[in-house]
Amino acid sequence: MALVKKIFAIGEYTVKENIRQKIFYTILLFGLVIIISSVLFTMLSGEETRVILDIGLGATEIFTLLNAIFAAVGLVLGEMENRSVSLILARPVRRFEYIWGRYIGILSISMVNIMLMSIGLLILLFVKGWTLDFRFFLAVFFIFFKVIIISALAILISLISTSPISSISATFFLWILGHVSDHLKYLNHVLVEKGIKITIFLKAIYYLLPNFQYFNIKDYIGYPGSLSGTAILWQVTYGLVYASVATWLSVLVFSRKEF
Amino acid sequence: MRKPISLVFLILPLFFLSIFSQHQVEKRFRFPMPLIMEARPSSFLYFWGTLLGFRRLSSDLAWVRLLQYYGTLEEEEHIHRMDKSERGEYENLLPMCEEVVRLDPYFHYAYLFGGASLAFNHERYDEAIQLLREGIRNDPKFWRCRLYLAVVFYARNKEYDVAIPLLEEAIKYRDCPEVVKIFLASIYKAKGEYKKAEAIWKQILATSRDEWARSVAKSHLEGMAIPR
Questions:
Q1: How far apart are CA A53 and CA A58, in angstroms?
Q2: What is the rounded distance in angstroms from the CA atom of residue A161 to the CA atom of residue A174?
Q3: Nearest CA in chain A to B110
Q4: So what's the pLDDT on residue B72?
Q5: How confident is the model at residue B81, as a pLDDT?
Q6: Are A129 and A49 in contact (CB under 8 A)?
């Protein structure tokens, strides 16, 4: 119980710290402005609700991602650089509690971000006469899962790298790779046809990289087929397990650091 | 602090569980979009959109670009001078439609709009058939593509009496492109059934939010007023 209390105390501290920073408001405001301005874009396209939905979900995802990355890199790496982490670790806080607390704090602030933007988007969609679709909520839910994974990876990368720019770039790179990891199968197929056999190597990369397409339900909204409950359950399991692997790896790296 | 070795024993089983769960997801879920190589985006914007996981949004952008292309001066000429020789050709209409639906194969309206425009505005029936067939291949359950395809076949053979009931059925749907209504009205006009044609033009003028469709309807109504 004491352990959970400590983790949540650090999480709360992370949330407060993030809220105090101007970048949080800037990102949130910018996201909401983009969502609202999607109405202007619909004048060009005709397909009103589709465009608002796509821009809105896209803005929700990208701005939450930005906030999560900046929080993970800024707070964790920043605290290590200015040595203020020593002050926290001097208290009866274990290193894994610190990392998990930070992680939960980042996820909490991301959840608030997603909820605020989704509510704004829903209001806009209803004003435009949109009929409620269950997949909207699924899409939002899975945007949060993408953030769960990328935040864990951002913390891990910020612990490994030496500068904020390199960690932000590496995290973005992983974000892109996570959306095209399915292409590794195609690459393997092409290489095998040409007589180059590096299947094991490609498979290893495939399993090491996160697969964000499992959570890309916002691109799946117009798909006529249904998504089974078991598939959703396994997607959730995959997301949680992958994120916990990354977070425990962060704990491992952090436990070996000297301050 | 936990010892690193105990952490390794914790991480390894979790990693294998992640691989196992990934296998389970793959058995049950397949991302229903073509690979980037198949979509062949023409612009870096769509390419990056796809890389960042915004396929539908990229398709929307391609769609807006298509509408801008289809709403240029060539289109204006088409509105005011219905003479075939004066019509804009819009040679890129099919490739642009194909790009939209390859980025998002479930963008149903793009098939309907593209197919109808190619067939009924430009009499490029083969291209319309090609696009509508792609729509049927990507979503066999989307029956409206089949309806449009049937109409395009009839229109190609000038069997207007067979096409009229099909088009009457199609215009009842909310998402029916205005171009289909325009085509139906044009058929009625060609057959000398002016009242029916006039009713459709008036309906377009009153209800459509499509500026182009309204201007077409207006010019037709003005044109029809002279001989009567």
A1: 8
A2: 14
A3: A47
A4: 61
A5: 45
A6: yes
3-class DSSP state for residue A46?
coil
Quote the CA–CA distance of A185 and A62 in Å, as a whole number.
Answer: 27
Place of tokens 């890129």: B92
Q: What is the DSSP string of B154-184?
A: HHHTT-HHHHHHHHHHHTTSTT--HHHHHHH
Report pLDDT for A140: 94
Structural domain for A198, as ranges: 2-255
The model's pTM = 0.81
Q: Which one of A40, A54, A133 makes the best mutation probe of the B interface by having the most chain B beta carbons within 10 Å?
A: A54
A72 within 8 A of A158, measured Cβ to Cβ: yes
| CA–CA distance, B129 with A219 (Å, rounded to integer) | 27
Give me the amino acid identity at A71. Answer: A
Q: Rounded to 5 degrees, what are φ and ψ at A184?
A: -65, -35
Q: Render each residue's pLDDT in chain A as its tens digit; 259 residues.
A: 778 888 888 888 888 888 887 777 888 888 888 888 877 777 777 677 888 899 999 999 999 999 889 888 887 777 777 777 777 777 888 888 989 999 999 999 999 999 999 999 999 988 888 888 888 999 999 999 999 999 999 999 998 888 889 999 999 999 999 998 888 888 888 888 888 777 788 888 888 999 998 998 888 777 777 778 898 999 999 999 999 999 999 999 988 887 6
Looking at the 3D structure of chain A, how many domains does it have? 1
Residue B174's alpha-carbon distances to A67, A164, B115, B178, in angstroms, are 40, 51, 17, 10
Helix (H) or strand (E) holding B108: helix B108-116
Provide the Cα torsion B177, B180, B185, B189; round to 10°: 150
* Residues of chain B numbered 69-108 and touching chain A (CB < 8 Å): 104, 106-108
Q: How far is CA B105 from CA B10, B108, B113, B177, in A?
A: 43, 8, 14, 18
Cβ-Cβ contacts under 8 Å, B50 against chain A: 179
For residue B3, name the pLDDT band (cuts at 50, 70, 90): low
Beta-carbon contacts of A132 under 8 Å, excluding residues fewer than 6 positions away, are none
> Residue B31: its chain A contacts at CB < 8 A?
182, 213-214, 216, 219-220
Counting one residue from chain A and one from chain B, the pairs whose CB atoms sit within 8 A come to 133
- Cβ pair A105, A18 in contact under 8 A: yes
CA distance A69 to B224: 63
Does the interface predicted TM-score (ipTM) exceed 0.90? no
Burial B178-209 (b: 16+ CB within 10 A, else e): bbbbbbbbbbbbeeeeeebbbebbeebbeebe
Could you tell me which chain B residue has the CA closest to the CA of A242?
A: B18
